[in-house]
């Protein structure tokens, strides 16, 4: 009902469980999917896993209670474009769908901090890999990567680093490749693992 109230959003399907969700995604090819972590028959993590790999897949927004859900980190590492807390106001849900459809990723600064904290201390292999990846960045790319890790959106980064939003987007695009990341959440994880976040 929330999404149907926005004339720019077309709801093409609604699934009762993960199995039906995968069937509908294959048949309807939506641009964005709101995916609950906890679903009957097939949970959200398994849906993400089954949709991974080569080929085009929709952008996925995970719905979670977060504080009670220990699986959110795995979901984000599996390539989810972001996540929403289940008590997000209706306008926030609509805004998230628009942003993710446009190629952005949803990272609330307050939730990003909690997410990074939940990751805990990275193991040595992750630290080494993150340090090696970060070493390939230019100074400017490193600044943008840290800002992304702090949960800032492109407009904020542009204002703080005195560059255009288009330039920030170009930097983020390069960061995805250099840091072997699928989305902004994974950039934040690499930056955290490399010890660049205070």
TrEMBL record:
BP term (GO), one: phosphorelay signal transduction system
Keywords assigned by UniProt, alphabetized: DNA-binding, Phosphoprotein, Transcription, Transcription regulation
GO-annotated molecular function: DNA binding
Residues with 4-aspartylphosphate modification: 36
Pfam families in the record: GerE (PF00196), Response_reg (PF00072)
Residues in Response regulatory domain copies: 1-101
Span of domain HTH luxR-type: 130-195
InterPro entries for the chain: CheY-like_superfamily, NreC/VraR/RcsB-like_REC, Sig_transdc_resp-reg_C-effctor, Sig_transdc_resp-reg_receiver, Tscrpt_reg_LuxR_C, WalR-like
Coiled coil spans: none
Name of protein: DNA-binding NarL/FixJ family response regulator
Natural source organism: Kribbella caucasensis
